[in-house]
């Protein structure tokens, strides 16, 4: 489960993953990368059975500093990841679903089945909205939510809270 | 038989060229969009190109040039502003080449943007850009030139920010506009000076009137304008950032046509610079710094489009060097040949990017020459032409510039920088070829690799033909205005070739070293300096925002209230009084030493006065 603070294991693993990614940016050819990745793994494995948390934290700090000094200035970022070349590229084509309500009746008449079904779904949304809000209010702790994840539907015949936003999200690649 | 009808043919074809370009725009505003609007636009540009070939051939044959005044727009006597088009050597050849390159790019864009919903708008923007460029190039007065200048700037903004949902694209578009605006200050300065002192904006009149005048101010203004538009050092960061736009935009605007507008301005208005040694030296030094710095930055980039963008910037620096050597024609020839191979390199990159599912990092490409033979071949041809391989297109212009550089009286520092930049060109060209098409494959296994589409193959092939023969054709049919230095020692003649070969050999060695990977990362200082573009964008963007804001804050909060109302008034006087009072109290503390020293000092002063007066 995700919590507000990172555990030591999470921190070490995050350092390992980002050092591997930056190593991949430096060592372009796969065989050379594999060699240096094995060396890096050996560096991490050397102290993996350490029980003393103070020493482990000092080692982690030293590792972070070594990472900072030897990081790549232009690390390889996947195109669809944040910072990549095609991240958010199609945001400008994503239209929210409430625009469908603003269509002219003649345009809506071109797709009668779809809009008829859409009316049913909207009725369902209005009916379950009260219950979703009640569930969220019951389940949120007093000083605010701890994580960003939404709970599933608990009761029989209920829909998951805020399902409409998820179901009516735009396509990843708008056509 | 045709001889007596040549002038009519000439002017008719030129008018038809312009009309064919404007027709789709007007049609789009008047009627409903056609079924295949991109195809219609591409065909219009194609017809426009063929129509523009006739006057170009007539010019190459009979040296016929014309200057047409279409419409008297404003008359605030004595200043007359007309819509007048000048079809001389520069504008006609550039028009044909720009239309050829645009035709190829539009055909490629039909493939590249075919999944885009707003493809019609994209083509309309590209066509509007082309029309603005034509207005700029054929302008016979400064006002029309300015209209074209601003037009290409605005279309650049709209096209770089095509995917406006992306923050980076919006930032890049803003950078382009702001850097261009700083350059526009220079252009407006030049225009204002010309208007005030010459009372005219007509280029022919200006050349006659400024023959023996000191034209330093407008020339410096024009240099600043070229600095902004052609991404010279100081106003260069917008060009690599402009790679946020789609590849057809990068190919058309930021390699062949828009960025050369600044150099074209200097070529067109060269008589202002001819006799002005200060400005020529400034242009030479600026060009040398630009070409060296941007070539150095290109050495460690990992995005294929950024490498080609820096390569463009470096070649623009070389064109500026040619202008600084008082050889505008060599610069123009380099513009023409550079358009072909640079646009082709961008189209090849676009084809590779689409085939690898939007992957732009060369670290994840490799072995392309086996799966995309045509694209990698043409990339190789483009890189060879860029390096100045003998008898390809780039050789005729680049070699001529380096020869002129070697045989002129100029500072050795500019010469060294340009030669080092030429060798760097070979290095980063090999970098692209090595990481993209040679060596092992590092791309994802299930990439939709497909170059078997006539919309890709035909444009690239056309531009490849251009890269190979355009230099030869231009060189043979255009006589230089200024006599070049024909005789020089063999070592000077072969300098460009030797330097490029040296660069190539060093690059091969470096590639071998990269393959062995003896240590994880290279020397951090040099690599990081080159990779982060000399830290120039980071420092300047923050400094240029912070300084005016700090100045404004200090002004608004401290200057008025603290300085004028306090320091100049009560508090200032009080401080002065306080200091004086303190000094006098010190003197009257009852210390004998103080009294004695004051007495001695006064006696000394009185004695000195008695002696000397």
TrEMBL record, chain A:
Its main location: mitochondrion. Residues 132-158 are annotated as: Disordered. Transmembrane segments: none annotated. It comes from the Eukaryota. Keywords: Acetylation, Electron transport, Membrane, Mitochondrion, Mitochondrion inner membrane, Phosphoprotein, Respiratory chain, Transport. Residues 10-68 form the Complex 1 LYR protein domain. It is found in: Mitochondrion inner membrane. It is a peripheral membrane protein. GO terms for cellular component: mitochondrial inner membrane. GO terms for biological process: mitochondrial electron transport, NADH to ubiquinone. Belongs to the complex I LYR family. Accessory subunit of the mitochondrial membrane respiratory chain NADH dehydrogenase (Complex I), that is believed to be not involved in catalysis. Complex I functions in the transfer of electrons from NADH to the respiratory chain. The immediate electron acceptor for the enzyme is believed to be ubiquinone. Mammalian complex I is composed of 45 different subunits. This is NADH dehydrogenase [ubiquinone] 1 beta subcomplex subunit 9. It comes from Erpetoichthys calabaricus (Rope fish). The lineage of its organism: Eukaryota, Metazoa, Chordata, Craniata, Vertebrata.
TrEMBL record, chain B:
It is a multi-pass membrane protein. GO terms for cellular component: mitochondrial inner membrane. It is an enzyme of class 7 (translocase). Residues 428-610 form the NADH dehydrogenase subunit 5 C-terminal domain. Residues 73-123 form the NADH-Ubiquinone oxidoreductase (complex I) chain 5 N-terminal domain. GO terms for molecular function: NADH dehydrogenase (ubiquinone) activity; NADH dehydrogenase activity. It is found in: Mitochondrion inner membrane. Signal peptide: none annotated. It catalyses: a ubiquinone + NADH + 5 H(+)(in) = a ubiquinol + NAD(+) + 4 H(+)(out). The chain crosses the membrane at residues 6-27, 48-71, 91-110, 122-139, 145-165, 177-196, 216-239, 251-273, 279-300, 307-325, 331-353, 374-393, 413-436, 463-479, 491-514, 592-612. The keyword Translocase applies. Its EC number is 7.1.1.2. The keyword Glycoprotein does not apply. One of its GO terms (biological process) is ATP synthesis coupled electron transport. Coiled coil: none annotated. Pfam families: NADH5_C (PF06455), Proton_antipo_M (PF00361), Proton_antipo_N (PF00662). NCBIfam families: NDH_I_L (TIGR01974). Belongs to the complex I subunit 5 family. Core subunit of the mitochondrial membrane respiratory chain NADH dehydrogenase (Complex I) which catalyzes electron transfer from NADH through the respiratory chain, using ubiquinone as an electron acceptor. Essential for the catalytic activity and assembly of complex I. This is NADH-ubiquinone oxidoreductase chain 5. It comes from Erpetoichthys calabaricus (Rope fish).
């Amino acid at each position: 489960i995700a919590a507000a603070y990172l555990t030591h294991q999470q921190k070490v693993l995050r350092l390992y993953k980002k050092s591997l990614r930056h190593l991949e940016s430096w060592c372009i050819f796969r065989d050379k990368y594999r060699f240096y990745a094995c060396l890096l793994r050996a560096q991490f494995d050397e102290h993996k059975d350490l029980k003393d948390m103070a020493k482990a934290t000092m080692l982690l700090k030293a590792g972070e500093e070594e990472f900072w000094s030897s990081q790549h200035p232009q690390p390889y970022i996947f195109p669809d990841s944040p910072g990549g070349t095609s991240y958010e590229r199609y945001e400008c084509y994503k239209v929210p679903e409430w625009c469908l309500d603003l269509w002219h009746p003649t345009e809506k008449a071109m797709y009668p089945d779809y809009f008829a079904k859409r009316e049913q779904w909207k009725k369902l949304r209005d009916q379950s909205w009260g219950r979703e809000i009640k569930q969220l209010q019951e389940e949120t702790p007093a000083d605010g939510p701890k994580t960003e994840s939404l709970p599933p539907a608990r009761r029989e015949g209920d829909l998951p809270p805020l399902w409409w936003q998820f179901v009516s999200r735009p396509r990843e690649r708008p056509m | 038989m045709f001889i007596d009808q040549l002038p009519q043919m000439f002017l008719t074809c030129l008018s038809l060229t312009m009309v064919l370009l404007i027709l789709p725009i007007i049609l789009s505003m008047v009627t409903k969009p056609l079924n295949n609007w991109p195809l219609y636009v591409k065909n219009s540009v194609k017809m426009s190109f063929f129509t523009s070939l006739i006057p170009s051939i007539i010019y190459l044959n009979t040296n016929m040039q014309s200057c047409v005044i279409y419409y008297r727009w404003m008359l605030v006597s004595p200043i007359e502003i007309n819509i007048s088009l000048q079809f001389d050597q520069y504008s006609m050849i550039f028009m044909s080449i720009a239309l050829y390159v645009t035709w190829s790019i539009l055909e490629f864009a039909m493939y590249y943007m075919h999944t885009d919903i707003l493809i019609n708008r994209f083509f309309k923007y590209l066509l509007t850009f082309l029309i603005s460029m034509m207005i700029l190039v054929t302008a016979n007065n400064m006002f029309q030139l300015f209209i074209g200048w601003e037009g290409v700037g605005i279309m650049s903004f709209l096209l770089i920010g095509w995917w406006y949902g992306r923050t980076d694209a919006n930032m890049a578009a803003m950078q382009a506009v702001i850097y261009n605006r700083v350059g526009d200050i220079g252009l407006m300065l030049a225009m204002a000076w010309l208007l005030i002192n010459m009372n005219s904006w007509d280029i022919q009149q200006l050349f006659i009137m400024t023959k023996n005048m000191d034209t330093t101010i407008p020339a410096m203004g024009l240099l600043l304008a070229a600095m902004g538009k052609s991404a010279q050092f100081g106003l260069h960061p917008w060009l690599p950032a402009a790679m946020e736009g789609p590849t057809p935009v990068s190919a058309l605007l930021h390699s062949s046509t828009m960025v050369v507008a600044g150099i074209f301005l200097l070529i067109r208005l060269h008589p202002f610079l001819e006799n002005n040694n200060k400005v020529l030296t400034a242009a030479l030094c600026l060009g040398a710094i630009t070409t060296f710095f941007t070539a150095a930055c290109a050495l460690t980039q990992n995005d294929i489009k950024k490498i080609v963008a820096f390569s463009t910037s470096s070649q623009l620096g070389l064109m500026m060097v040619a202008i600084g050597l008082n050889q505008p024609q060599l610069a123009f020839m380099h513009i023409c040949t550079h358009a072909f191979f640079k646009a082709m390199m961008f189209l090849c990159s676009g084809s590779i990017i689409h085939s690898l599912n939007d992957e732009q990092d060369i670290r994840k490409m490799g072995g392309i020459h086996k799966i995309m033979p045509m694209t990698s071949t043409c990339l190789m041809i483009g890189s060879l032409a860029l390096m100045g391989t003998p008898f390809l297109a780039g050789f005729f212009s680049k070699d001529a510039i380096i020869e002129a550089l070697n045989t002129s009286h100029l500072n050795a520092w500019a010469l060294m920088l340009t030669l080092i930049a030429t060798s760097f060109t070979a290095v980063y060209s090999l970098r692209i070829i090595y990481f993209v098409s040679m060596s092992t494959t590092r791309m994802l296994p299930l990439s939709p690799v497909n170059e078997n589409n006539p919309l890709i193959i035909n444009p690239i092939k056309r531009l490849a033909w251009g890269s190979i023969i355009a230099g030869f054709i231009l060189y043979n049919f255009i006589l230089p205005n200024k006599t070049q230095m024909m005789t020089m020692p063999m070592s000077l003649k072969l300098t460009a070739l030797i330097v490029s070969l040296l660069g190539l050999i060093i690059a091969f060695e470096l590639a071998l070293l990269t393959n062995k990977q003896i240590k994880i990362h290279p020397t951090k200082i040099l690599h990081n300096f080159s990779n982060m573009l000399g830290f120039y964008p980071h420092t300047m963007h923050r400094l240029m925002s912070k300084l005016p804001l700090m100045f404004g804050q200090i002004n608004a909060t401290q200057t008025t209230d603290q300085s004028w109302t306090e320091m100049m008034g009560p508090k200032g006087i009080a401080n002065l009084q306080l200091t004086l009072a303190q000094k006098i109290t010190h003197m009257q503390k009852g210390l004998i030493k103080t009294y004695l020293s004051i007495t001695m000092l006064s006696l000394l002063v009185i004695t000195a006065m008695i002696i000397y007066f």
